[in-house]
Fold:
Amino acid sequence: MSPIIWRIEHFDEIDSTNTWLAQRALEGAPEGLVAVADFQSAGRGRLDRRWESPPGASLLCSILLRPNVAPDQLQLVVACVALAARAALVRLSGVRPALKWPNDLIVGDAKIAGLLAEIVAVDERLAVVVGIGVNLTHEGPANVVSTSVRAESGVTITPPALLDILLDELEARRASLDSSDGQATLRDEYQRALVTLGRLVRVERTNDVLVGLATSVDEFGQLIVVVNGEEVAVTVGDVVHVRVPEGEQS
Ligand code: BTN
Structure:
């Protein structure tokens, strides 16, 4: 594929970069359009939650991609951006977050970044808006165990500096989404970075809670959890990594 031309629209304040970019995507904006804001008045998180951060304290951006993937492979698109963000953080601060299924970057048990991906249109190609919030100097909401790049490394990264390197890392991975070999490579990188695998997890779904061993991620990005000997494929849910008390570990 030809190199992506990134076109960055900066806002001092906006309701939500995802909402703005989804509208542009519907109007036919090309892949590579990026919205970045110092502050969001109605930032959105997964599962209809709010995403709040003081002005300038986080990277708050959304990226429009038009990859050659089926709608049921949205999780791979998220993985592509999450891996780019992780690589960018390693380059700029030395912090190497792990990925937590489905869409978080974590350090230890603390969340440092979250992603929200939305399919906007399904034409010849998907139009996907991938939003990401990275805590740079602000440690996230009080009700979530969270941290920031500065708390973890002492390094103060500005939002534009992180965006620049994140787009560079994304460019290096983006073409992988368009071929089955590339998708397999991406899936491997994703699974290696995914700290959820091999962990005892509690999955909070809309109508129930599962507790079991997370063993793998299938080709659709669903988390496979073994509950009482049966494999359950989880599509949506909040995952808690359960700590096994010492002495009970096998
Ligand atoms: C989550 O962890 O729940 C996902 C958070 C995603 C937040 C980002 S900030 C930039 C973009 N615009 C939004 O309204 N949300 C995403």
In short: The chain has two domains: 7-193, 200-248. The chain is about 25% helix and 35% strand. The pocket of biotin is lined by residues 16-18, 40, 43-46, 49, 51, 60-62, 103-104, 114-116, 131-133 (CB under 6 Å). The helical segments are 17-26, 74-93, 149-153, 159-174, 180-193.
